UniProtKB/TrEMBL annotation:
Annotated ranges, domain GGDEF: 344-477
Domain PAC: from-to ranges: 260-311
One Pfam family it belongs to: GGDEF
EAL domain segment(s): 486-736
SMART domains: EAL (SM00052), GGDEF (SM00267)
Protein name as it appears in the record: EAL domain-containing protein
Superkingdom of the organism of origin: Bacteria
Organism: Sporosarcina aquimarina
Length: 736
């Protein structure tokens, strides 16, 4: 069999170099003692691993004269182990510690070729160039860093040729494979250990590691900081003795339990509260528990922030009282406990301040806010042991009363609250007076939802408002029936808008001097499919409360203009048509554009439309004067309705571009019975004429009333004396 290529090439190189095959070529370079020690030290771990496995190889070949030689990547011999007889023989070939074997110096040799060929090799007998080695069999291979494939060195075995066996090469390959794996494992373990140290040192978590008996083996810097215990004082102690985490670790070590996100609270060295999430789990190796791992995550800042968020979410930022969300949750909790059979009692007192809007409008929101703050303080002063006070929003407050002896407690509490408002509230050195309307709802014997109970209390409060304010009303089943009827009516009102169930009736306005018809007031009626024809008193207030009034008001304006133009086109003498604007409609930002659009669409001359507003609408002076001037620019007439019953300033009246003042029928009805009412009527007429305005008296029902009004130069009269409001068809029969 021919020699391998690497042997042929190596021997040819020896010939070309002029080496004498019968003379031994010894190494030319040796490490001195210091260099050798440095080299050995740098290869210490490698040599310890190689020594372990080469010894195993030697033990397996015990009795065989064999030599095991280890070199570094440059061919320097770092270890020589084996049979003493062959060691003495090898000395003559220069095989000594610190010697460097190279092809250039020593010719064909197993160390150099193993490093050069990078694969297992064998040089047996006459394959050697030098004849003195023809009685030697050598096997060798390089070993590497498996992770980066770096050459580390070589391992070779030498023996007398008669002991040669190809199996030795396979054994050597297995040994080298084991060496490379062990070196890789050690390197990875070192990396892992470094990473663990970095993790333990730099992590923002506290780490505790114990052995299987609970003895602490690792306690990192962050754990020291959290627990205020030094590492030295903890390492070696049994973690199960810890008052904070001992019980957790006992269960981990004895039962194999795992804990996640356990919330722990404790004090630091300065006495500040710390909050941590704690995890603990067993550590297993080959299926056997060998210890426990614990981890602390400091969530103090997050916890405090969450506490603050929770407070803000459940408290009113103006008064610091619990808010609607909080009280709703509390009510639901009590109801749930009652439903589960717990013997609990509950009542709600729903409170709304009277005249708060007027205070806000006249003094400003800063005064209103300060008033609410002072009201909340005063209300809190009468809280009982089991009472909770919350602000529902705006000027609404609610008392939650629980676990009282008798329902009479809720009544007494309502009376006590009303008494709190007998004295004024001082805000910025001003005395502000307000009262409260209170609705009382006691949780009944039968189950009831939180929403329903609140509705009962709110409805009772609304009734207190209707009955005159500054009082309380207790919810009853009769009140529920009334409110249910109102709710049904509200649904039907929405239906009425969608299905055009409204009609207009028209009441004539007569000039007192000429006796001629000069105008109509358009008055809405609801042709209810179930209840018949309903006057405005049955539904206008409801429409204002649920926001439908603007939609209804726009329908009135459109229908009145359309009807007036229709009559004019049919030949009726043109007269003015008056329509009432609600407060919400007057404050609507698109009022001017809406009126302009209706006049253009219907073709009605603007001078035949009069809009009626109340004094209260004019309280927003800057807004009101702007809107009234814009209406005036359109050519529309303007009338102040119900004059004498509102709050407007006479100075405002002087500046408003109005055409008519309308005397409220409450003054007219008492005209012949009350001297004061007569004086007021005369004063209104005089005032209006001095301002160059016409006066309309409404609600005139007798000749005596008419004669009085004429005698004092009232311009226009409207009332049952002439005609009640009539549908369009009847107006046409009389006037067309």
């Amino acid at each position: 069999m021919s020699n391998p290529t690497y042997i042929i090439e190596s021997n040819r190189m020896c010939e070309q170099a002029g080496m004498n095959p019968h003379e031994i070529s010894s190494p030319k370079h040796y490490l001195n003692e210091t260099e050798f020690e440095i080299k050995r030290k740098s290869y210490n771990e490698i040599l310890s691993v190689v020594s372990f496995f080469s010894n195993k190889l030697l033990n397996s070949l015990k009795g065989t004269p064999i030599l095991v030689v280890v070199s570094d990547a440059e061919g320097y011999l770092l270890s020589i182990e084996g049979d003493e007889t062959i060691k003495s023989t090898s000395d003559q070939f220069g095989i000594k510690l610190g010697a460097q074997f190279t092809l250039k110096d020593t010719g064909t040799n197993v160390v150099s070729l193993s490093l050069q060929q990078m694969h297992p090799i064998s040089i047996i007998g006459e394959q050697h160039y030098h004849s003195s080695l023809h009685e030697i069999a050598c096997y060798g291979t390089a070993f590497h860093n498996k992770e980066e494939n770096d050459l580390l060195g070589s391992i070779s075995i030498m023996m007398p040729i008669w002991f040669q066996n190809p199996l030795y090469l396979s054994m050597l390959v297995q040994v080298v494979d084991s060496i490379e794996r062990e070196l890789l494992l050690r390197k990875q373990n070192r990396k892992l250990n470094i990473m663990n140290q970095i993790m333990l040192k730099r992590t923002r978590n506290g780490i505790v590691i114990t052995d299987e008996h609970g003895i602490t083996t690792e306690f990192n810097e962050f754990a020291e900081r959290i627990s205020n215990n030094s590492r030295e004082s903890v390492i070696g102690r049994n973690i199960c003795e810890s008052p904070l985490t001992g019980d957790y670790f006992k269960q981990v070590l004895r039962e194999g339990k795992t804990f996640n996100n356990e919330e722990l609270k404790f004090k630091d060295a300065e006495g500040n509260q710390l909050v941590c999430l704690f995890d603990a789990q067993p550590i297993f190796e080959n299926g056997k528990m060998v210890g426990a791992f614990g981890q602390f995550r400091d969530i103090t800042n997050r916890y405090q922030m969450q506490e603050e968020y929770n407070y803000l979410a459940y408290h009113d930022d103006l008064t610091n009282l619990p808010n609607r969300r909080y009280i709703n949750k509390e009510i639901e909790t009590v109801i749930h406990q009652i439903d589960e059979g717990q013997k609990r009692k509950m009542a709600l007192l729903f409170l709304d301040l009277d005249r708060f809007k007027i205070i806000n409008d006249n003094f400003g929101h800063s005064y209103g806010d300060e008033l609410l703050h002072k009201v909340s303080d005063r209300l809190a002063s009468c809280l009982g042991e089991n009472d909770t006070l919350a602000r529902m929003g705006g000027d609404e407050f609610i008392f939650l009363l629980t676990d009282f002896d008798s329902p009479e407690y809720a009544i007494k509490k309502a009376e006590e609250i009303l008494e709190l408002f007998h004295h004024p509230f001082v805000v910025n050195n001003k005395e502000l007076h307000t009262t409260a309307s209170i609705g009382v709802a006691v949780y009944p014997d039968s189950p009831l939802s939180m929403e329903k109970l609140l509705v009962y209390a709110d409805n009772a409060m609304y009734q207190a408002k209707v009955q005159g304010k500054n009082r309380f009303v207790v919810h009853t089943s009769e009140l529920s029936d009334e409110m249910i009827a109102e709710s049904v009516l509200e649904m039907e009102l929405r239906h009425a808008i969608e299905h055009n169930e409204f009609v207009l009736h028209y009441q004539p306005q007569i000039h007192n001097v000429s006796g001629k018809l000069i105008g109509f007031e358009a008055l809405i009626r609801w042709q209810h499919p179930r209840l018949g024809l309903l006057a405005p008193g049955h539904f206008i207030k409801l429409a204002e409360e649920n926001g439908l009034i603007t939609q209804i008001g726009e329908w009135v304006v459109n229908e009145a203009c359309l009807q007036n133009k229709k009559w004019q086109d049919a030949g009726m003498t043109p007269v003015k048509m008056s329509v009432n604007l609600s407060t919400q409609q007057f404050l609507t930002r698109n009022l001017i554009s809406f009126v302009e659009e209706v006049l253009e669409r219907t073709g009605l001359d603007p001078k035949y439309l009069v809009v009626e507003i109340t004094e209260n609408m004019a309280m927003e002076y800057n807004y009101s004067i702007l809107v009234l001037k814009q209406l005036k620019e359109l050519g529309v007439g303007i009338s102040i309705d119900d004059f004498g019953t509102g709050y407007s300033s006479l100075n405002y009246l002087k500046n408003f571009p109005i055409d008519y003042i309308k005397i409220d029928k409450s003054f007219v009805s008492e005209l012949m019975k009350s001297e004061n009412d007569a004086i007021i009527v005369v004063a209104i007429i005089t005032l209006a004429h001095n301002l160059d305005l016409d006066v309309i008296a409404e609600g005139v029902e007798t000749e005596e009333q008419l004669d009085f009004l004429k005698s004092h130069n009232c311009d226009i009269t409207q009332g049952f004396l002439f005609s009640k409001p009539l549908p369009a068809a009847e107006i046409e029969n009389v006037y067309l």
